[in-house]
Amino acid sequence: MKKIFCKVFFCFVIIVLSSIFLMSCGKSATNPDRITDNNISENTENIEKYDGAINDGTNTVLNNDVVASVNGEELKAKDFGYYIYNNAVIQMYKEDSNTTEDVTTFDWSKTNKDGKALRDVVVENAIEDAINDVVFRQSAENSGFLISGAEKEAEELVNGSIERQGEEQFKVSANLVGVSDAETYKKIYTNISVFEGVAEDFQNNPEKYVTDISVLSNYIGNKGASVQHVLILNDTDDASQLSENVLQKAKNGEEFVELMKQYNDDTSEKESGYTFPEGEMLPSFETAAFSLKIGEISDIVESDYGFHIIKRIVGAYELQNFWRSEADVQISPNSLQMVNFYDVMDMIKEAKAKNVD
């Protein structure tokens, strides 16, 4: 089963590599609905305006004010722009999965059920995500995971891209997804690449990262999940009955990996399953996965693909939550003001205007 919502940053990687400056991050070809950033227009309502140009260094998204620290490593205001954009896209589609609104013109003054402005929800989530990525990268390295490969890849990617398209166009491409400069890009790319690498390695070598894997069951969160699953495609008359039979086998204690080998129509899934963040999978699949406890098996979940049987397993997000609980994290009491949501939106808006030109 292909994922339907790619992480915004890796869409940017594709943008840079191909030198095609897209305005959106699309769902997979298996689902034609697309996430789009259209209708580039001015929306000044509720937007705090700032003096000075977007790239003159006065804008808070580009400054070096220390917002937080992780085990002594500082995170500055400019480090959060991508995370704001990523969370803004996710939040916007939570509000309306069919929206064609541009992320920069969406009404972020709207409130959630708790009365909190959506822009503040986005910033809070962005700060947490940025901190968690740094915690994860630090802890992975301390556990023996080599991050030099990711760092080298980031360096080569940026240098090659600037050489091909020029520094100014690279900056525009980066600004489109909230990244202010090349060095910030490299850091974010490295952090996310390390997460992806550890997520896969962890399933084969959990003892490398934690002494007692059972403790991770206490660190389930709502940011992401790891699952194994069996997909029965709905292309035969007996698909529904077959899925019921497989579910019964799973509930009776048969080895789930063996059921995957025998019945799974998802040819892209490895035995280690999927590790995915909130907002990446089909809604029905994600809702079921997030409701499970570690080791628990879902009832049959239907989608346009067919019938899914899902087992939640310990993975990288539980490991991340565990590492976060062990980390020394300091966050400025003024973080919501220091990481200004509308600065990021203004930067993206200006980049879009330049990109159109």
Structure explained in plain terms:
The chain has twelve helices and seven strands. About 45% of the residues lie in helices and about 10% in strands. The chain is α+β, with helices and mostly antiparallel strands. Helix 3 packs across helix 6. The two termini are about 40 Å apart. The model is unreliable at about 1-60 (pLDDT under 50). The protein has two domains: about 10-205 and about 330-355, no CATH class; about 215-320, Chitinase A, domain 3 (Roll). Strand 5 and strand 6 (about 305-315) form a beta hairpin. A four-stranded antiparallel β-sheet has the order 4-3-6-5, sandwiched between helices. It has helices at about 10-20, 80-95, 120-140, 150-165, 165-175, 180-205, 240-250, 255-265, 285-290, 315-325, 335-340, 340-355; strands spanning about 65-70, 75, 225-235, 275, 300, 305-315, 330. The radius of gyration is 21 Å and the shape is globular. Keywords: Isomerase, Rotamase, Signal. InterPro entries: PPIase_dom_sf (IPR046357), PPIase_PpiC (IPR000297), PrsA_foldase (IPR050245). This is Peptidyl-prolyl cis-trans isomerase PpiD.
How do the strands and helices of this protein lay out in sequence?
Elements: H1 8-18, E1 66-70, E2 73-76, H2 81-95, H3 118-142, H4 148-165, H5 167-175, H6 182-204, E3 224-233, H7 239-251, H8 256-263, E4 274-277, H9 283-291, E5 301-302, E6 306-313, H10 316-326, E7 329-331, H11 335-338, H12 341-356
Antiparallel strand pairs: 1-2, 1-7, 3-4, 3-6, 5-6
Helix pairs in contact: 2-3, 3-6, 3-10, 4-5, 4-6, 5-12
